[in-house]
């Protein structure tokens, strides 16, 4: 098994000529996720080529030298790629992998070759790779599934799920969210929502969304729980952290060992939620239909499904542009000409809160409060109308008296 060395650990004070094939490959990978995934996926092809040294770096060097040592290096490599992708196509037909997996193998091989000056006809090579259905065949989770999921014993699951289904954030954004990014919004001393500052890891820009009162309360309870065990919660505190030992295994007394938090990464959150889905008995593998190659093993994506849930529910009651803005979708030129005010966006979001709230008791309370506010507003409107009518009547009476007085004055003049 090849070991994987982080590119950050490599010596970077070198001229381009001194970089190894592996270092050039890693140089072209910008995101942390790409640096984690691409070497592993490239190794699948190197295993096919029977190149198995102690590390992925050595494997890359062997692979590169093997190509350069041959007079027909590029032609030979093209043939090997045809063989490799033919094998992967057969695996798709058997239902062992999806067409997306083949695409994920193709990308790192192409990147490695391009960064090391190996010119191939990539368009020709990609011609024979099986293409899947362009549309997604997964669905958002149901409310019943979400209810069961948040009952998972790990306290972190509930705030993660409630924030994601009520804000539509990507799981990668958890790498940047801190406690000060939540701003509760009150109306007449009642929590109506919380604004959330979010970092879009694709565009590298910040945007904002909202979470429901239920989601904000869940996060606050989690932060208060951590504080009760000695952690100093501040504006820069991460939201999802590692676990800590709550009780002494020897004496059974409570321990305050939460003082040194370590942020749980987006990948860690993904693993945690995957485990929750499985342990709660909510992950059943799909049986592919006859002739269906590009199928997903599960109906619901473990974490991206929450984003799809948000979009599906919001589109039932909100304007499409507002939904796209809260999800940081590319709205094109429309946003340059039509930029809603923040209070209008919040008003639109409030329409979706009942659909994004899991605890229906909270919904009942919220609807009751809204009804009371509306009745109060109606009573106020009646009161205002009554006062305005009294004012109009008083003005009319005064006007009549002035007219009578003027008539009397006119008579005296005559």
Automatic annotation (TrEMBL):
Matches recorded under InterPro entries: DNA_brk_join_enz, Integrase-like_cat_sf
Domain of life: Archaea
UniProt-recorded Gene Ontology molecular function terms: DNA binding
SUPFAM superfamilies attached to this UniProt entry: DNA breaking-rejoining enzymes
GO biological process: DNA integration; DNA recombination
Coiled-coil annotated spans: 356-390
Keywords on record: Coiled coil, DNA recombination
The protein's name: Phage integrase family protein
Native organism: Candidatus Nitrosocosmicus franklandianus
Organismal lineage: Archaea, Nitrososphaerota, Nitrososphaeria, Nitrososphaerales, Nitrososphaeraceae
């Amino acid at each position: 098994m090849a070991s994987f060395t982080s590119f950050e650990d490599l010596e970077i004070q070198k001229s381009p000529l001194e970089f190894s094939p592996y270092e050039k490959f890693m140089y072209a990978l910008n995101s942390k996720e790409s640096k984690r995934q691409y070497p592993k996926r490239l190794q699948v092809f190197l295993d096919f080529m029977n190149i198995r040294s102690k590390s992925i770096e050595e494997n890359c060097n062997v692979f590169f030298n093997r190509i350069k040592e041959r007079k027909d290096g590029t032609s030979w490599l093209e043939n090997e790629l045809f063989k490799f992708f033919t094998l992967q196509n057969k695996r798709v037909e058997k239902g062992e992998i999806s067409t997306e997996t083949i695409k994920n193998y193709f990308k790192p091989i192409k990147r490695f070759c391009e960064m090391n000056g190996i010119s191939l006809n990539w368009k020709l090579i990609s011609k024979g790779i099986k293409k899947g259905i362009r549309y997604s065949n997964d669905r958002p989770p149901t409310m019943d599934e979400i209810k069961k999921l948040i009952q998972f014993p790990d306290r972190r699951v509930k705030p993660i799920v409630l924030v994601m289904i009520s804000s539509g954030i990507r799981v990668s954004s958890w790498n940047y969210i801190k406690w000060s990014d939540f701003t509760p919004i009150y109306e007449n001393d009642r929590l109506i929502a919380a604004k959330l500052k979010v970092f879009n890891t694709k565009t590298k820009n910040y945007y904002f969304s909202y979470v429901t009162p239920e989601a904000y309360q869940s996060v606050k309870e989690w932060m208060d729980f951590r504080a009760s065990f000695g952690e100093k919660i501040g504006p820069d505190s991460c939201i999802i952290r590692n676990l800590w030992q709550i009780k002494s295994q020897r004496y059974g007394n409570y321990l305050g060992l939460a003082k040194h938090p370590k942020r749980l990464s987006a990948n860690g959150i993904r693993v945690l939620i995957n485990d929750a889905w499985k342990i709660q008995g909510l992950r059943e593998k799909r049986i592919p239909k006859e002739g269906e190659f590009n199928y997903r093993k599960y109906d619901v994506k473990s974490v991206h499904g929450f984003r799809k849930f948000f979009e599906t529910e919001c589109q039932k009651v909100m304007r499409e542009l507002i939904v796209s803005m809260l999800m940081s979708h590319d709205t094109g030129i429309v946003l340059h000409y039509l930029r809603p005010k923040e209070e209008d966006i919040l008003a639109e979001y409030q329409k979706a809160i009942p659909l994004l709230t899991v605890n229906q008791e909270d919904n009942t309370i919220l609807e009751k409060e809204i009804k009371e506010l509306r009745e109060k507003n109606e009573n106020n409107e009646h009161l205002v109308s009554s006062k305005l009518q009294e004012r109009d009547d008083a003005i009319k009476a005064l006007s009549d008296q002035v007219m009578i007085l003027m008539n009397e004055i006119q008579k005296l003049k005559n």
